[in-house]
Amino acid sequence: MTSAVKRGATSSTRDRDTQTAREETHLWTRSVHVHVTMKIYFCGSIRGGRDDVMLYRKIVEKLQSYGTVLTEHVSSTELSHRGEDASAAGDRFIHDRDVNWLRQSDVVVAEVTQPSLGVGYELGRVVDMKKKTLCLFRPSSARVLSAMIRGADDGERFVVRDYGEDEVDEVLEEFFNALKRT
């Protein structure tokens, strides 16, 4: 074999190795992108009352533009104030599943206008887990937000924001843009 042929074979092998490395890097980059999708836990009243379910739907639809909403079912109009029939295990199953989702989440968004023991419990767990949290409250409801929620607002990790229904997109955009800066 001549040295020109050997160089050609070596060059061809090197080109193939370089191309393979580029493809592997591209696949790795794409897989990393998939893994950095934000996991969002949305809290809203279920057994405490479903009056705000259409607003929950609007919030969840907007949240989906920022990542995967682990608790999309909270915004379902098919879910009544009686809750979900998750399994024969019932309440224990729901509790354990939801706490697991809380642990997996990167961020928590809660609509806290409709009083709910479950949402309050979730927020207590979230504070303990040190998760970035946004609580949304509508003063126009004529309700008064619990001091345990409003008083937890530290302006950084746990944020309570008063808003009107027409401000949902703007408030969420502001919150998620601030997350990108941290």
From TrEMBL:
Database matches in Pfam families: Nuc_deoxyrib_tr
Class of this enzyme: hydrolase
Enzymatic reactions: a purine 2'-deoxyribonucleoside 5'-phosphate + H2O = a purine nucleobase + 2-deoxy-D-ribose 5-phosphate; a pyrimidine 2'-deoxyribonucleoside 5'-phosphate + H2O = a pyrimidine nucleobase + 2-deoxy-D-ribose 5-phosphate; 5-hydroxymethyl-dUMP + H2O = 5-hydroxymethyluracil + 2-deoxy-D-ribose 5-phosphate
GO biological process: deoxyribonucleoside monophosphate catabolic process; nucleoside metabolic process; purine nucleotide catabolic process
Annotated compartments: Cytoplasm; Nucleus
Enzyme nomenclature, EC number: 3.2.2.-
Family matches, as SUPFAM superfamilies: N-(deoxy)ribosyltransferase-like
GO molecular function, one term: identical protein binding
Domain of life: Eukaryota
InterPro entries the record matches: 2'-dNMP_N-hydrolase, DNPH1, Nucleoside_deoxyribTrfase
Positions of region (Disordered): 1-22
Gene Ontology CC annotations of this record: cytoplasm; nucleus
Binding residues for substrate: Y41, F42, C43, G44, S45, I46, R47, Y56, E122, S146, A147, M148
Keywords: Cytoplasm, Glycosidase, Hydrolase, Nucleotide metabolism, Nucleus, Phosphoprotein
Assembly and interaction partners: Monomer and homodimer.
Family according to the record: Belongs to the 2'-deoxynucleoside 5'-phosphate N-hydrolase 1 family.
Function: Catalyzes the cleavage of the N-glycosidic bond of deoxyribonucleoside 5'-monophosphates to yield deoxyribose 5-phosphate and a purine or pyrimidine base. Deoxyribonucleoside 5'-monophosphates containing purine bases are preferred to those containing pyrimidine bases.
PANTHER family, A to Z: 2'-DEOXYNUCLEOSIDE 5'-PHOSPHATE N-HYDROLASE 1
Protein name: 2'-deoxynucleoside 5'-phosphate N-hydrolase 1
Species the sequence originates in: Scophthalmus maximus
